[in-house]
Write a structure and sequence with these properties.
By secondary structure, the chain is α+β, with helices and mostly antiparallel strands. It contains two helices and eleven strands; from the N terminus they run αβββββββββββα. A hairpin with a 5-residue loop joins strand 7 and strand 8 (147-151). The longest helix is centred in the C-terminal third of the chain and has 25 residues, at 206-230.
Length: 231
């Protein structure tokens, strides 16, 4: 009877630890805060013939090429990613990640945009060489090319949460792409604190581990007492 009680206690501890709010989701992106001071984990792609690119920039220290005033991100670190240019262009910052296929799946990020043309969002696609095209878009791709966001952001840093589940199709490797396209006037976009959270890969935090270890210790002590009583 006592052994059954101990087993029940262990099961209860495991259940409680699984439901503990101390668990946090795993970030599937590498270097999402750019605090390496470079684009480790990321790929920068610029349309041929255009001007500018994505750059690592200081927090609130001005745009990388033109030195335009940029806002300070109070939740940011030393560095962030910013687009800047001297003329028209199209610039993509991308990273691939492996998703377990177990939802939900959210993209979290900070962003700002300084559109000096006042035209954004306008145009379609990421080609700057045609008609008026000045906007920012987020794409998540696997076999198809679904778009998750089209538009622009405020001139001050803001936090954004984007549900990616409607744009994915089961487990697999996906590519997340952030594209800034401009052919009207200067358009500076900043990104920071990017994360894609995989709930299936949740990792217990220290407090949760302590509860589990403590519980197993109590269960072990109960078993030892049971053995002593039998002896």
């Amino acid at each position: 009877m006592r052994l059954r009680t101990v087993s029940t206690a262990i099961a209860a501890l495991l259940g409680a630890s699984a439901l503990a709010s101390g668990a946090h989701a795993v970030n599937l992106l590498t270097n999402g805060d750019f605090e390496t001071g470079d684009f480790t984990g990321w790929v920068v792609t610029d349309q041929a013939g255009g001007s500018g690119s994505w750059y690592i920039a200081g927090n609130g220290t001005g745009s990388p090429l033109n030195g335009f005033t940029t806002p300070f991100n109070p939740t940011g670190g030393t560095w962030n990613a910013q687009s800047d240019q001297f003329g028209p262009g199209s610039h993509t910052l991308s990273q691939s990640f492996l998703w377990s296929g177990v939802g939900p799946l959210f993209l979290h990020f900070d962003a700002f945009a300084d559109d000096q043309s006042g035209a954004a969002p306008t145009g379609d696609g990421t080609d700057y060489s045609g008609p008026a095209n000045q906007h920012f878009q987020i794409d998540i791709t696997k076999d198809a090319d679904p778009m998750a966001f089209y538009g622009t952001f405020d001139i001050d840093w803001g936090h954004h949460d984007l549900d990616l589940l409607p744009f994915v199709d089961g487990a697999g490797t996906y590519t997340l792409a952030f594209t800034e396209v401009d052919n009207q006037l200067f358009y500076n976009v900043g990104l920071d604190n990017l994360s894609v959270n995989d709930v299936a890969g949740t990792v217990p935090e220290p407090a949760t581990w302590a509860m589990m270890i403590g519980g197993f210790g109590l269960a072990g002590a109960a078993l030892r007492r049971r053995k002593a009583a039998i002896a």
